[in-house]
Design brief:
Distance between the termini of chain A: 72 Å
Largest sheet of chain A: none
Shape of chain A: flat
Number of strands of chain A: 0
Number of helices of chain A: 10
Structural class of chain A: mainly alpha
Oligomer: homodimer
Largest interface: A-B, 53 and 53 residues
DNA sequence: ACCTGAACACCGTTCAAGT
DNA sequence: ACCTGAACACCGTTCAAGT
């Protein structure tokens, strides 16, 4: 009788969801390079090896927390046209990624989990509604994905530029002082000064969608 | 008299270039996760700590080998129009990245070295020749960069799909069997079957360049 | 079924010391 | 200037053993 399972902190028991959630928080707070099985176990107040009953290895854990982020993306309502649907998916994905910057560089390099597959399914579905030529739809899917991915990475990189990090500030200084790459310096300044339109994300996205639509009508 | 420096393997002496080249080879052969300071030192037949006289730390080494890859990109000849220049830069960058797949996921996440800055400078220069509106040029720069980056990652991911790796094969099987994501499965099949046009890379690139040009002429 | 400590085979890097 | 071994503070994971 009584609980057969070990009880800790009231009713909390070691769980796949708990492990993944906690690991995500750890990555959010300290960066993903600080996430280790040992630190995670210490955080969860359990033995290191207990984790391996819920997760095959560290790689699987990383895949799980990336998919956790993918799970934060809002599913689009069903009553929008395809362009509106694509736009909502893109914006929501970007927001989720910016909430968890560590996920961005590994997003496309890790095997997708169920949440990310669901996301891809939604985007492919929206593009199917556009009735594009199959190869144009495929190209569009990748162009849109790349745009989201690249914009998130860009935002993160430029964000670190203005951050407290004295070492990058020093490096930017060196770059400007060298004067070997005037256009790069100008480009950095362009971004730093906030001259870039605040909604460049959807602006470029619309440009992509226009190109897809135009190509299709032009050739059919 | 005689050589003041320690000589190993005939005339070979420990050198920044030697270290970076060797590290790149190690990453090429065994993957970047196998690249450690200790293995690199063993490869170079020197003490581990000797490396630290040429390289600040492992992060600096990683930046150096990514920049080594950027250095393989062919500089475009000066007598082309801006579209031709952009196309050559893009193709040459893609080729270099596919020769060193490990560099792709970290490419945009690491601080650029001189070779990568030179590359950015060239691309910005080509776009400057196009006389686009500054914000369109900026957007174009990122769209083109994202396209190269995303296409390389895509190619690598799908490449690993057909590779010997039994574990991904198993996972694709599971995905198909689940039938939860019919469009994803269809999309995978589309790529696997080689239905995708072989030059989708330049095709999409041209679509981007068209969009840039069209937007500019339409609004000026 | 769930949990675990000890042990193994690794890491990057500091420090103090050699030539 | 260039090189280095020992030591420190970590890693992920196997294995054998506990409840």
């Amino acid at each position: 009788m009584g609980r057969p399972k070990k009880v800790r902190d009231g009713d909390a028991v070691l769980t796949y969801e708990l492990i993944v959630t906690r690991a995500t928080q750890l990555a959010d707070n300290d960066g993903i390079e600080q996430l280790s099985m040992r630190r995670l176990a210490a955080d969860l107040d359990c033995g290191v090896m207990s984790l391996y009953h819920y997760v095959a290895d560290k790689e699987a854990l990383i895949e799980a927390i990336v998919d956790q982020v993918a799970g934060e993306v809002m599913p689009p309502p069903g009553d929008l046209d395809w362009r509106g649907t694509v736009k909502l998916i893109a914006e929501s994905t970007l927001e989720a990624q910016l909430r968890h910057p560590w996920a961005v560089p590994i997003w496309s390099a890790t095997w997708p989990g169920p949440n990310r597959f669901a996301l891809v399914e939604q985007l492919l579905g929206a593009l199917a509604d556009a009735d594009l030529r199959p190869d144009i739809a495929d190209l569009g899917f990748h162009a849109i994905s790349n745009h989201i991915q690249g914009f998130a990475q860009q935002k993160i990189s430029f964000g670190q530029l203005d951050a407290k990090s004295a070492i990058t500030a020093e490096r930017v200084q060196a770059l400007v002082a060298d004067a070997d790459f005037p256009r790069v310096v100008e480009h950095l300044e362009f971004h730093r000064s906030g001259q870039v339109t605040p909604d460049e994300f959807v602006f470029t996205l619309e440009l992509i969608l226009d190109a897809l639509e135009n190509y299709d009508t032009a050739s059919s």
